[in-house]
Amino acid sequence: MMTKTENLKFYFFVLPVLIIALLACNLSRFTQQGNTTTSKNSSSANKASDTSDSISTICNNAYFPVGPSVVRKYRVTYPKGMLSDREYTESFSDLTDDTFAVNTDFGNVKAHINWKCSPDGLLATQYDNTVNMVKSGASARVDTMESNGVSLPPEDRWKPGETWHAEYRVTETLNGPDGKQMGGGEGTVTQDGAIIGSESVTVPAGTFEAMKTELKTTVDITVTMKGMSIPMKVPIDTTAYFAKGTGMIKSVTKTGAGGDATSELLSISK
C-alpha cells in the first residue's frame, strides 16, 4: 500500500502528463468526459440561439470559422502507451450576436465549450478539463469559476508578433478509482499566445499556407489531499497552425510523456 506521500507523488506525476492546454483547436477535449460547465461571465444563456447562416461580424474570424454548417474533422495521435489514436469532429451551435459554442465529438466522449466574442478577439470562457488517469482508474476534474482575456486575436491582428493572454480561476476535484473524492484544490490557469510567422503545412486535408502560433499554458493550483496541501505548477506548451478560411489545421502539444500529442485536420465542411 502506498503512503500518503507516494500517493501524492503518483497523482502529481500523472496529472501533468494528461492535462493538455485548451486552445482554439480544443485539443484538451480528448481527455474530457463530456461535462458542460458554464462560466459565470458567459451571456449565451440569456440570448436566443441563432441557427441561421449569418454570423455576426464580431464573431466572424477567418482564422477560426464558425457556423451552424461548419464541421471540422481531426485525427489526434498520442505518445506510444499513453492513449490510442482517435478521430473527432468539431461543430458549432448556440450562435448569438457575441457568443457561440464549440462541440467536440469523439463518439462516446463529447464536450461543449462556450466562447465569447469581443473587439479584442475570441475567448473560450471555460477551462473545463476533466481527465481519466488511465493507469489508475482515478480522475481529476477542473472547473472554471471566472475567465477573462483573449484565446484568439481578431482577424485583422493575425500578424507575426501579435500576442494575447487569457486567465482562468479554477477549482479541481480529485476522485479515486472507486469514484470517491480524495481531494481538491483551487488556483489559476494562464495562457499566453503569440503568432510566430507563416509556414506551408501539409496535413491529410491538404497543403495550406498557415500562421504558426505558440501557446504557453501554466496550471498553478494548490491541491489538498489526505490532510496535505501542496502547490502544483505545470507548464504546457502547444504549437498550432491556422489557415485563413479553414481554421486550425494542426497542433502539437508537449505531453511530458516522452512524445507529443498531435492533431491534424482530415476534412472540413462549410
What labels would you give this structure?
270 residues, mainly beta, 13 strands, 6% helix
Strand order of the largest sheet: 5-4-3-2-1-13-12-11-10-9-8-7-6
Q: What is the total number of structural domains?
A: 1
> With helices defined by DSSP (H or I, 4 residues minimum), what is the helix count?
1
Could you tell me how far the N terminus lies from the C terminus, measured between alpha carbons in angstroms?
54 Å
Helical percent range? under 10%
Structural class, please?
A: mainly beta
Rg over CA atoms: 18 Å
Q: Could you list the spans in which at least 5 consecutive residues all have pLDDT below 50? A: 4-53, 131-135
By DSSP, the count of extended strands is 13
Compose a concise summary of this entry.
The chain is mainly beta. The protein contains 1 helix and 13 strands. The N and C termini lie far apart (54 Å).
Describe this structure as you would to a colleague.
This protein has one helix at 4-18; strands spanning 71-77, 86-93, 99-105, 110-118, 121-124, 131-133, 138-149, 163-175, 181-203, 206-225, 228-243, 247-254, 260-269. The chain has 270 residues and is mostly beta strands. The chain has one domain. The chain is globular and about 50 Å long. Mean pLDDT is 79; it is low at 4-53 and 131-135.
